[in-house]
Design brief:
Helix content is about 40%, strand content about 15%. By secondary structure, the protein is an alpha/beta fold. It has one domain (about 5-340): Histone deacetylase domain (Arginase, Chain A, 3-Layer(aba) Sandwich), CATH 3.40.800. It starts with a strand and ends with a helix.
Length: about 350
C-alpha cells in the first residue's frame, strides 16, 4: 500500500515570525518525519502551482487578482489576522497545487492514499474572500479538480479542524455532489457552522455541522464519529473522501478550546480510513489545515500518516487532556432527529 505526501516547496517565503501560522509549522512536521523514520516509507510527489483555471473553478477572478497584487506590496493584511508577503501569491498557488497533486495520485491509482502537507491553509477562504490565514481554498480546489479531470461524481469532505470550515461550506452549500461535514468548537472563530446550516437548493441536506462544547475530547469525538459522521457518510456513499486535517483541536493548542489527544487523532483517522476502504476503494486524501502547538501538530500528522500506512499506533508523546469532557448525548440526538440526511 503506497501512501504519498506532497509538500509546498515555497511555503517558507510566506512567513511572519510573530504569527502563529508561520513556516515553523511545516518545518516541525518535516523534522518529525525525519526523526521518526517514516519518510522513507512515504512516496514524496512533485508539486506544481495551481493554474488560473483550477483556481477559477472555485474562486472569483477578483480574489485571484487581489492575491496576485500582494506580490508587489509589502505587509498587506486582510483583516486583523491574515498577513501576506511579496511571496504569498506563489506560496498560496503552490499550496493549492499540493492538494491537487495528492488528489491526482489517489484518483489515478499511483497512491492508495495521500496527505498534502501544505501551507498556507485553505478552509476559511471563500469564493470571494481570503480570511483566517487562508488565501485559496486548497481542499475545494482539489475537489473541483477531481470532478473535472478524474470523473468523480460524489465526494465527502470531512473537516476536523477546531474552527468551522466556512469557506469550504460556502463553496459547496448548494451543491449535492459534495457532502461537507464539519466538527468544530462553538462559539469560536469564524462564528459560522450552526446545526441549522444544512445546505440550500440542490445541496439541501449535504452540509452537516456539529458545533461542539468546549473541552470535547477523545471520548466525545469517538461518539460523534460512530453515531453521526460515519452513518452520514455511509448514507451519502462518496467515491472519494477528502479531509481538512486541522490539529488545533488538540488540548495543547494555543488557539483551540477542545481536548483531543494525539491518540484521539489516531482514532479519527482510523475511522476515516475504514470508511474509505468500505465505500470508495480506500481513496482518501488528507489536506493540512490548522494546528499551532508544534508538538501536537507534528505528533498528530505522524499519527495520521501511520494509520494511512497501515501501521500500528505509536505511544502518544503528549498524553491525554487532564480535563473532564462534556456529555454530547443531547447534541448528537438533536442532530440525528433534525438533520435531513438522517
Amino acid at each position: 500500500m503506497t501512501t504519498a505526501i506532497t509538500l509546498n516547496p515555497l511555503h517558507e517565503a510566506h512567513d511572519e515570525a510573530t504569527h502563529v501560522e508561520r513556516k515553523t509549522r511545516l518545518q516541525a512536521i518535516e523534522a518529525a518525519l525525519d526523526t521518526s523514520g517514516l519518510r522513507p516509507e512515504l512516496s514524496t510527489l512533485p508539486v506544481i502551482p495551481a493554474t488560473s483555471a483550477q483556481l477559477l473553478a472555485v474562486h472569483e477572478q477578483r480574489l485571484i487578482d487581489t492575491i496576485h497584487w500582494t506580490a508587489s506590496q509589502d505587509d498587506v493584511w486582510f483583516g486583523m489576522d491574515t498577513y501576506t508577503t511579496r511571496h504569498t501569491w506563489e506560496a498560496a498557488r503552490m499550496s493549492a497545487g499540493a492538494a491537487i497533486a495528492a488528489v491526482d495520485a489517489v484518483a489515478t491509482g499511483r497512491a492508495h492514499n495521500a496527505f498534502a502537507l501544505s501551507r498556507p491553509p485553505g478552509h476559511h477562504a471563500t469564493p470571494s474572500q481570503p480570511m483566517g490565514f487562508c488565501f485559496f481554498n486548497n481542499i475545494a480546489v482539489a475537489a473541483r479538480h477531481a470532478f473535472m479531470h478524474h470523473g468523480i461524481a460524489r465526494l465527502a469532505i470531512i473537516d476536523f479542524d477546531v474552527h468551522h470550515g466556512n469557506g469550504t461550506q460556502d463553496c459547496f452549500y448548494d451543491d449535492s455532489t459534495v457532502l461537507f461535514c464539519s466538527s468544530h468548537a462553538s462559539p469560536l472563530y469564524p462564528g459560522t457552522g450552526s446545526e441549522h446550516e444544512v445546505g440550500l437548493e440542490d445541496g439541501y441536506g449535504t452540509t452537516l455541522n456539529i458545533p461542539l462544547p468546549y473541552r470535547t475530547g477523545d471520548m466525545g469525538f469517538s461518539m460523534l464519529y460512530d453515531q453521526v459522521i460515519m452513518p452520514a457518510v455511509r448514507r451519502y456513499r462518496p467515491e472519494m473522501i477528502l479531509v481538512s486535517a486541522g490539529y488545533d483541536a488538540h488540548w495543547d493548542d494555543p488557539l483551540g478550546p477542545l481536548s483531543l489527544s494525539i491518540s484521539g487523532y489516531t482514532a479519527i483517522t482510523q475511522r476515516l480510513v475504514a470508511l474509505a476502504n468500505e465505500l470508495c476503494n480506500g481513496k482518501i486524501v488528507m489536506i493540512l489545515e490548522g494546528g499551532y502547538s508544534l508538538p501536537a501538530l507534528s505528533g498528530g500528522v505522524l499519527a495520521s500518516l501511520r494509520v494511512l500506512l497501515g501501521q500500528a499506533p505509536a505511544p502518544d508523546p503528549l498524553g491525554p487532556a487532564d480535563t473532564a469532557e462534556p456529555d454530547l448525548t443531547t447534541v448528537i440526538r438533536r442532530i440525528l432527529d433534525r438533520h435531513p440526511i438522517f
